[in-house]
Every structure is written in C-alpha cells, then in structure tokens.
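FORM 7B: Structural annotation worksheet

SECTION A. Query
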Amino acid sequence: MAKITKDMTIRQVLERDTNTAPIFFEMGMHCIGCPSAQAETLEEACMVHGIDCEVLVGKLNEYFGE
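SECTION B. Predicted structure
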C-alpha cells in the first residue's frame, strides 16, 4: 500500500482507515468533519493549525506500518 504523503487530503487518509481519526485529534486537528478536510492537503491543514506536517505524516505512516 502506498505511503501517506503531505499531498494527500485528510479525506483520503480517513477513507483509507477511519481509525486514523485519533491521530488527527492527538495532533490538535479536530477538523476531520470540516468541509475543508475534503480538499485540503495534509500540508495545508498543518500550516493552518501550526503543526509540523512531517510529524503527522510520520505518525500516520507508522500506523499503517510504512
């Protein structure tokens, strides 16, 4: 399975596995149901929330065993 990248949308990650939601919450991103989550990339969302995108992507890939 392909790795999670900063160019993917929050929606794409959640469609892959909804159990990733707690990772977003842990990082302070409670916007997974927000309309922006449908089209906003992980990188864009991280910028808005002041989060290090590499950390988020790393946690998501760790979850998926990548």
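SECTION C. Observations
The mean pLDDT is 92. The helical segments are 10-16, 21-26, 42-49, 53-63.

SECTION D. Sign-off
Analyst initials: ____
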